């Protein structure tokens, strides 16, 4: 099977993507309870 190599994004493209993603999250991200805890059990339960 042939391997498809994707180009590695340059630093400027990574920064632009990160900035756009964080902007989107600030506008549309939901405030979910497990984002407010460091308790591994609560995080595990949220995944199930």
How many structural domains in the coordinates? 1
The stretches of 5 or more residues where confidence is low (pLDDT under 50) are: none
Largest sheet: none
Q: What pattern of helices and strands is seen along the backbone?
A: HH
Number of strands: 0
* Rg over CA atoms: 17 Å
The chain-level mean pLDDT equals 87
Helix content: 40-55%
Specify the structural class.
mainly alpha
Task: Describe the structure in your own words.
The protein has one domain (11-46). It is built from two helices and no strands. It has helices at residues 11-28, 40-47.
Q: What does this entry show, briefly?
A:
The protein starts with 10 loop residues before the first helix and ends with a helix. With 48 residues, it is an all-alpha fold.
Protein traits:
48 residues; 54% helix; 2 helices; flat; mainly alpha
Blueprint (SSEs and pairs):
Blueprint: H1 11-28, H2 40-47
């Amino acid at each position: 099977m042939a391997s498809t190599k994707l180009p590695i994004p340059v630093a400027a493209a990574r920064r632009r993507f990160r900035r756009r993603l964080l902007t989107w999250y600030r506008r549309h991200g939901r405030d979910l309870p497990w984002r407010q805890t460091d308790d591994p059990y609560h995080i595990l339960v949220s995944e199930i």
